Amino acid sequence: MLAFLDLMQPSLPACAASLYAEGVRSLRVVPVFLGAGGHLKEDLPKIAAAIRAERADLEIAIEAPIGERPQVIAAIARAIARR
Fold first, then answer.
1. Which domains does the chain have, with CATH numbers?
2. Which residues 6+ apart lie within 8 Å of 33 measured at CB?
3. What is the pLDDT of residue 45?
4. CA atoms 41, 47, 3, 9: torsion sign
5. What does the chain look like in DSSP terms, one character per residue?
6. CA distances, 27 to each of 15, 22, 54, 71, 78 (Å)
7. Residue-wise DSSP of 21-44
8. Do the strands 26-29 and 59-62 form a parallel or antiparallel pair, or are they unpaired?
9. pTM exceeds 0.85, yes or no
10. Residue 27 CB contacts under 8 Å (≥ 6 apart), including other chains
11. 28 CB contacts (<8 Å, ≥6 apart)?
12. What tens digit of pLDDT does each residue of 23-46 get?
């Protein structure tokens, strides 16, 4: 399920609530960002903590941003090299 941290909908708390209502008790959050800036270092942990506070039996794993994965870095490098 796709969720957003800011302005756009659906929000991460809304998605978490919907999935929880369906019986999901483990979430894997994969941030679609190139790097770990303020949203990922400050906002996302606060949002995850608030979700956990409401649903203590919901496990939330937050992964590194997609842009820091070796495969993505390699793909970007290939795209730049193809100039």
1. 12-81 (3.40.50.1400)
2. 39, 40, 65, 66, 67
3. 96
4. negative
5. ---BSSSSSSBHHHHHHHHHHTT--EEEE----SS--HIIIIIHHHHHHHHHHH-TT-EEEEPPPGGGSHHHHHHHHHHHHT-
6. 10, 12, 14, 23, 32
7. HTT--EEEE----SS--HIIIIIH
8. parallel
9. no
10. 16, 19, 58, 59, 60, 61
11. 61, 63
12. 999 999 999 999 988 889 999 999
Give the span between the Cα atoms of 47 and 42, in whole angstroms: 9
Query: pLDDT tens for residues 54-74?
Result: 999 999 999 999 999 999 999
d(CA 63, CA 59): 13
Structure tokens at 36: 């770990």
Residues belonging to the chain: 83
